C-alpha cells in the first residue's frame, strides 16, 4: 500500500528492504538488506531516500533513528 501511494505521488520505488527476503522480488521490485549500513549504500547508489513503512510507531521511530545516525535520508509517504 505504501509503495503504491509513493508511486502515485511521483516517487520511483527502486527496492524493498527486508532482511528475510534479500535477493527476491516483490511485485517486480528487488528486495535488499535492511541493515542501516546496507541502506546507506543503496541510498548512495540510487540517489534515493528511505520510507520506513512499519505499523509499530515505536519500532519505526527506532529504525528511523538508526538510519539517521548513518546519514540515510528519510522520506514520508502519507496514505
Your description of this structure?
This protein is of the alpha+beta class and 79 residues long. 39% of the residues lie in helices and 10% in strands. It has helices at residues 2-8, 36-46, 57-69, and strands spanning 16-17, 25-26, 29-32. Strands 1-3-2 form a three-stranded mixed sheet. A hairpin with a 2-residue loop joins strand 2 (25-26) and strand 3. The longest helix has 13 residues, at 57-69.
Number of helices: 3
Query: In percent, how much strand structure appears in the residues?
Result: 5-15%
Structural class by secondary-structure content: alpha+beta
Mean pLDDT: 89
Radius of gyration: 12 Å
Short description:
With 79 residues, the chain is an alpha+beta fold. 39% of the residues lie in helices and 10% in strands.
